Amino acid sequence: MSRDHAFATQNKFPEGATVVGIVAASNKTPVTRHTGDVEMHPTFLTLANIHSEVRMKATAHAWRCVAYVPVVEFEAPSECQLILQGRLWHKCMNKVFVNLKTAVKIGHFMPDPYGALRYGFTPLVRWQGDLVEKQSIAVVAKNASPVSQAVIKQFGDNFPHPPRNGSPGEVWAEPQSTQ
């Protein structure tokens, strides 16, 4: 969220309201090793206005775990696993973030560090995760970019590939020609 984007976002909200940017993060993590290899996606939230040096110190307790999303193996063909797991993840995130989605649309009164009530809006300004996590969230194959329609053979070329927009079929579409 750049300075210009932050000001543009702030200007969309009523006078006196403030933007309380939210940063989320997740990473698939093994929960058990010897008793079934269970994996989860722990999901964490923090505020965007906390300085990154403070936010990244474990002793600062700036992050809060808000959900553990299961990684499930479905009784379905292997080519459907990625899509079904991605669908489950998104359904869970819709339930976890229902209040934040409401607060970004209509706002919510919340206390500031001094105890005064402020009218705030909570847009998600960043999602942190490694490449595998972002590919899982975007429900794309392991050889595809989670943010553009480029595939691994096209990584690093000079051609600007179109961004992903969630359209059906773009996940498995053949790569576009660079000529």
Automatic annotation (TrEMBL):
It comes from the Eukaryota. This is Uncharacterized protein. It comes from Leucogyrophana mollusca.
